[in-house]
Amino acid sequence: MKKDKKTIENFNVIAIASHQLRTPLSIMKGYLSMALQGDFGKIKEKKLYKVLETLYQNNEDLIYLIENLLTKTRLETNSLQLSLEKVDFNNLIKNIINDLKPKAKSKKISLQLKKSAIIPYAAVDGILMRQAIINIIDNAISYTKRGKVMVEISVIKKKVVITVSDTGPGLSSEKIKILFKIVKPWQLGRSSSDSFGLGLYISQLIIRAHQGKISARSLGRKGLEVQCVIPLTEEA
């Protein structure tokens, strides 16, 4: 994509705004996390704890949104080079699950991880890959009102396969065609108050940048499965 003057100006504005917003949001995240962990004293009031928990999650959603907007602009204008490093997918997925468990717990949804015995290291951009996988799992949690979200990771024919399935509403084949585009929740027939409609689109850009593939299929009236396949490249 050719980068004209207007495109560069827009990118610079988004980059500056993202930087300015990251700092206060990171500070808020730190203090809210400490409060929830009892570093300032045990929170005896359940209502107060719930309020702080809600603030923490909304703060996380804003951080994800900022990262997605910046990544979208960089990838679409070819302004982002992959910084490859050898990544342990076991730890990567495990850490993401731990980060998203509070959100799942707040919705009374079970977030489970299933993996094969041996997952080798792979040369990927660790930061971007984490962002892509977070978006996929977070999307599943957002659209699941009850039940569970299952994350599976395995290796098939020298490729890492990550599958995220949920028990939310299924989608028709026509709606699956626009799933990885920038769409509003109502366009998919899936309602969510905590989704910005960017997550899967960004994940697709990141996975494709790694020469991988991402797809989805409906599991009937209740359930959607999103799967990404990433080539195992050992050279960083």
As for the number of domains, it is 2
The total of beta strands comes to: 7
Q: How widely separated are the two ends?
A: 26 Å
Q: Give the strand content.
A: 15-25%
Oligomer: single chain
Secondary-structure arrangement, i.e. CATH architecture of the largest domain: 2-Layer Sandwich
Give the helices and strands as they follow along the chain.
HHEHEEHEEHHHEE
- Give the overall pLDDT as a whole number: 81
Looking at CATH, the homologous superfamily of the largest domain is Histidine kinase-like ATPase, C-terminal domain
* Unreliable parts: none
Gyration radius, rounded: 18 Å
| Widest β-sheet, arrangement of strands | 2-4-5-7-6
The third-level CATH topology of the largest domain is: Heat Shock Protein 90
Q: How many separate helices? A: 7
CATH class of the largest domain: Alpha Beta
Share of helical residues: 40-55%
- SS-derived structural category: alpha+beta
Task: Using the alpha-carbon principal axes, give the shape.
Answer: globular
Largest sheet: 5 strands, mixed
Give a written overview of the molecule.
The chain is an alpha+beta fold. The protein folds into two domains: 5-76; 84-231, Histidine kinase-like ATPase, C-terminal domain (Heat Shock Protein 90). Helix content is 50%, strand content 21%. It contains seven helices and seven strands; from the N terminus they run H-H-E-H-E-E-H-E-E-H-H-H-E-E. The chain has helices at residues 5-36, 46-76, 89-106, 126-142, 173-176, 185-188, 199-209, and strands spanning 84-87, 110-115, 122-125, 148-155, 159-169, 213-218, 222-231. The protein has a five-stranded mixed β-sheet. Strands 1-3 form a two-stranded antiparallel ribbon. It is globular. The relative contact order is 0.13.
